[in-house]
Amino acid sequence: MLAVITGGSGSGKSEYAESVATSLAKRDRLPLYYIATMRPFGAEGKWRVERHRKLRAGKGFETIECYVNLKEQTLPEKGVVLLECMSNLTANEMFEPEGTGDDAVEAVLAGVEALRGRCVHLVIVTNDIFSDGITYDEVTALYQERLGEINRRIAAEADQAAEVVCGIPLQLKNKGQNL
Predict the structure, then answer these.
(1) Spans in the chain with pLDDT lower than 50
(2) Using alpha carbons only, what angle is made at residue 83 by residues 81 and 89, rounded to the nearest 5 degrees?
(3) Which function does this protein serve (predicted)?
(4) What separation in angstroms does the CA of 29 have from each of 13, 21, 86, 128?
């Protein structure tokens, strides 16, 4: 199963995604993996990473750091994967020296497809960065365009999609069991 969970900053999407992933792992008796895509730059980045680690503590996740080249990421065995988050992965592929630059959309989508073949359930977190009404510079606008394309294409393939607003998950798509 492929599930996509989106929401704005501080919406509760990470906590919700963790609950979905842990429920699937418990139900199907599968190992639980967390693929972390945020490279922790600066004090705020380090704080965010530490905050997420504390939220996951005791839930059974094995953390795997993967900043670029998701296609080559291996897992110890098939299980439930929580990929957090698509926004960071896309930015890393676009802007990191080891990223794919202009080929970021294809690289990210190929990585998701490869990862789907290596796990039983894949839960992807992404960000809603499109509704603030601000006109950004050309580079940021290109990033938004590419992330938007990735989000649309992944959601089209997803079995489940939800948006978390104020901590409340709203089902957008459901091809089977509820998230």
Answers:
(1) none
(2) 150
(3) Catalyzes ATP-dependent phosphorylation of adenosylcobinamide and addition of GMP to adenosylcobinamide phosphate.
(4) 24, 12, 26, 32
